[in-house]
Amino acid sequence: MNTFDCVIVGGGIVGAALADVLSAEGLSIALVEACSIGSGTTACGMGHLVAMDDNAAELALTAWSVALWRELRDELPLAVEYDACGTLWLATDSEERAAIDAKVASYRGVGVRAEVLDAAALREAEPALSPGLVGALRVPDDAVLYPPRAALHFARRARDRGARLMPGCPVHALRPGSVVLENGEALAAGHIVLAAGVASPRLCPELPISPRKGHLLITHRGAPVVHHQLVELGYLKSAHGSGGASVAFNAQPRVTGQLLLGSSRQPGADGSHVEPAILERMLKRAADFLPGLDGLRALRVWTGLRPATPDGLPLLGPHPEKPWLWLACGHEGLGITTATGSARLVADQLLGRSSAIDSRPYAPARFLASMTPLSEAHHA
Length: 380
Known about the structure:
By secondary structure, the protein is α/β, with parallel strands linked by helices.
């Protein structure tokens, strides 16, 4: 039986980032992936690195993670397509414009740079936008990248330190001290980390993770030129609401001269087929903000299933009833953004040291051990 300090199940960007962090600490690592590295939900995402303030815990994790990405930017290969374009949160009316002030205070409170653009400054910054917008919040340190190549970069760095990469190895079962593959091979492990996204409940059925389907579209070259990631201020309530299918405007400039357009969310949806009605709603919403999209051709449309938890926060830390199992899953649409911070939080807990942010809001014990008070959950 092969023996490792840690076996990480799931080779998406979160699992790959954790392999990178733990291998840098000198641990022997196996990164086990059913398909290829970065090929699951990671390959289906927009690749935004964005500070989000839907709640304090989300802001703490996303702001820290974006800062960690920024520290890495100079060592990322060109193929990762890291673009420090910043984000513009767009206000369509006076109510949304008033909400900007609260967001400015929220961001600045955790050290995230933010500035307000009035309608004139917004038109100057992004001439392709609809002239009816009343202003925007600019977050200059946000960025975008190409997620599968970022995951592959992390995995290869871990491999260069001696980690064993095991793509094409579906897992049959998780047991105390071992991971059993479908081919019958067993990997012995001092620690097991489950980072398999929407597939995590198959191996750990009690996890409160459900799929949220999302549609994305990338254009041919020649799309309207935009200089920032563009997001409507209604995105937070649309993307993270618990109701039915929703759409919200989100557009990214790509270094290839294309536009990546989103987004939609369908709680509980299954299957990877494209749904024309959802796509039509999404594109109509995008055209409200970018009139120049009319007549533009799509190069590709696809969907992905995001692993969502009931409170919108990931599960990061020890399983309270299985002390041999650690969790790094349930990131919904923020797995790319928070891969760096999630990896650090789990690694810090596993190694018994403190973190830059409080890990308690993400503790799996908030769902998996109803008799375990949050204050008693393992945290930094």
